Amino acid sequence: MIQFSHVRPRSRPRPRRLPRGLRRAALLASCGVLLAAAGCGGGSSDEAAGGRPHQEQRQGAARGVPQGLPGMPPLLDPHDVYAADRPNALSPVVKDFPSRVYVPNTESDTVSVIDPKTYKVIETIPVGSQPQHVVPSWDLKTLWVNNDRGHTLTPIDPATGRAGKTVPVHDPYNLYFTPDGKHAVVMASMDRELVFRDAHTMKRKKTVPVSCLGVNHADFSPDGRYFIVSCEFSGELLKVDTEHMKVIGQQKLPFDGAMPQDVKIASDGRTWYVADMMADGLWVLDGDKFTEPWLMPTGKGAHGLYVSRDSKSMYISNRGEGSISVLDLASRKLVHKWELPDGGSPDMGGVSADGKVLWLSGRYNSEVYAIDTTDGHQIARIPVGAGPHGLAVYPQPGRYSLGHTGIFR
Each residue of 161-193: b (16+ CB within 10 Å) or e? Predict the structure, then answer.
């Protein structure tokens, strides 16, 4: 068993220059109001939560579940944020969708579609310029491809695998949904904005300028009332009030050259983890208090964070060294490190519906890795397009999606 105590952050040179095509250029000029296409990806909280949000809220109160953002389905278990994500616990909305892995190829402007039964690419979908992430909508009915440099979203119907008409959205590097299902939140990295949009039409509702550089990844508190955002190019974290759509906290990470990436709350609903690809580990903090975090080393280029189906473990992709660290969430101790047999650059991904396979994109190797979660051995290594990034395993268990490559509750 590998154990780490609190580590004092050390000084380090400024971050390495990112490879060509993955550098996001200097800030783009603000664009005018965009007309958004109506239709997919929204849905009401009644629909995605089984049509009984108010009844669930009353039942949740009776069970002692903290009351959250108005209109948000309450947690199933006050002690486990991911209680709805058990193996194969698929929502009726997605139970008949074919199981697929959708891989956005940032340099090829395509999405590779993998059949997880055969571990083969069965289709390649042309999309917009520089697709970064494939994001499940709050109501689980649509997959949104974030074409960052193309300034569009491409909707994919997961029931048929067909792409729909693109929607104009400026600088959609990443995409999240508020827990009440009302708003999409666009991480407009180059524009230095958090853009709240209607979750149904993607029409802009409120723009929140930020002073940090590179808004990137996020996660929501158990009650949905705030979310924490990483700013990768200035080494900062933001705390944002969900209902009032405003920044209520900001801090610089205590590491020279910090480059925070994925953000994930632990199953206990109290502990937050932020991967840092330059500090080579996870920042650990109390989100409610938003005090200065401490650093847990995991491996070179720590990047993506994924919780196991039993809520007990977190998988950490170490992109700079071709490994995956496994964190025991109860003890906060690293218990395994799985090395990819031929190296690689494991990045973003997700866990299969049954919890048996961890899927990760190989960002700089034009491939995808399928990893057995029982012992960490590599099941398959699948060639895809150039620059594979935020792949989505779909469908997954859960009642609704908070976005990114699949944060389900």
Answer: bebbebbebbbbbbbbbbbbbbbbbbbbbbbbb
Token pair in block for residue 221: 């508190």
pTM, two decimals, is: 0.86
Q: Bigger pLDDT: 324 or 10?
A: 324
Residue 215's CB is within 10 A of a number of other CB atoms, namely 31
Residue 171 β-bridge partners = none
Taking only the tens place, the pLDDT of each residue in 123-174 is: 999 999 999 999 999 999 999 999 999 999 999 999 999 999 999 999 999 9
For residue 108, the 8-state DSSP code is: T
Asked if residues 270 and 262 have their Cβ atoms less than 8 Å apart, the reply is: no
Q: Which residues contact 55 (CB under 8 A, 6 or more apart)?
A: none
Pairing mode, strands 260-265 and 246-252:
unpaired
Q: Which residues contact 210 (CB under 8 A, 6 or more apart)?
A: 192, 193, 194, 231, 238, 247
CA distance 261 to 273: 10
Q: Which amino acid is at 19?
A: P
- 392 φ, ψ (degrees, to nearest 5): -120, 125
292: left (phi over 0), alpha (psi -120 to 50) or beta: beta
Structure tokens at 18: 């990112």
Confidence of residue 53 (pLDDT cuts 50, 70, 90): very low
Confidence of residue 242 (pLDDT cuts 50, 70, 90): very high
Q: What is the pLDDT of residue 68?
A: 87
Pick from 36, 83, 316: which is nearest to 198 by CA? 36
Asked if the peptide bond before residue 395 counts as cis, ω within 30 degrees of 0, the response is yes
Q: Round to whole Å and give the CA distance between 132 and 401.
A: 18
HSE, CB side, 13 Å, CA atoms: give it for residue 88: 2
